[in-house]
Amino acid sequence: MDASFLAPAAVAAAHARIAPHIRRTPVLEADGADFGLPGVRLVLKLEFLQHAGSFKTRGAFNNLLTRALPPVGVVAASGGNHGAAVAYCAMRREVPATIFVPSVASPAKMDQIRGYGARLEIAGERYDDALKASERWLAESGAAAIHAYDQWETLQGQATVGLELEQQAPRLDALLVAVGGGGLIGGIASWYAGRIPVIGVEPEAAPTLARALAAGEPVDAPAGGVAADSLAPRRVGSLMFPIAQRHVAESVLVTDDAIRESQRALWKTLRIVAEPGGAAAMAALLSGRWKARPGQTIGVLICGANTTAVSFN
Could you tell me the pTM of the whole model? Predict the structure, then answer.
């Protein structure tokens, strides 16, 4: 398996394969003036409306539909969203699933995983701890591992977001995408392949891609902040990193306060409830960390909404 998984024809085939099982999530056009960005047209890809509440369901289904699975089923480590997606897909395919999450995972995501019938194991404080625990279980059980981001089938599934968005909004001037382990931006950036600037957005408290680009290779980074349950692995994936070097225009860092303000703005203006990781891409625009020019059409991926009910007032 190699980067041919991300060739346009292979991604199109993956989209056709998973299409009966996922939602073709809509786009919403918004006037940037409503967000203090006069003259800017926003196109929001509402991937938080995907089954299980995030884009992760695409990669999970692509794994389950292309790989031979043992009777013991599948295992995954997750900050929460990937685990919920794998649990949902396993439930729909009637496959056993064991999901390892860190204690930082939100109660909402843990409840989702249990609700889909998966076995939930809490291991350590951060994603890296859960990953190590899942690898031990993998060795003991013989289950099939579904990696959250560093696996070709996963990257290929996430690339279908780019395919869909280009069909829905073919004339974007740039696209902002939140970054955790890099599966989403790696898939999307490989699809666009430089045709538009794809901008990575990360929390200052978890600058995995920024650190990797500066070092020239994936390196350990801090793993904290308000979006730690979705955007804070220890380092970006080795498979996506060469893609990022070629096709991600830049990595922008945003503060936790900017992410919270983005959540509030999305709710106040559009009645969108996004989790912190889901609101991170928008935070780059609203905080001025990445500036759009009047006359531009900017795509923003709202990638997840697995959060407990909160007040954004």
Answer: 0.94
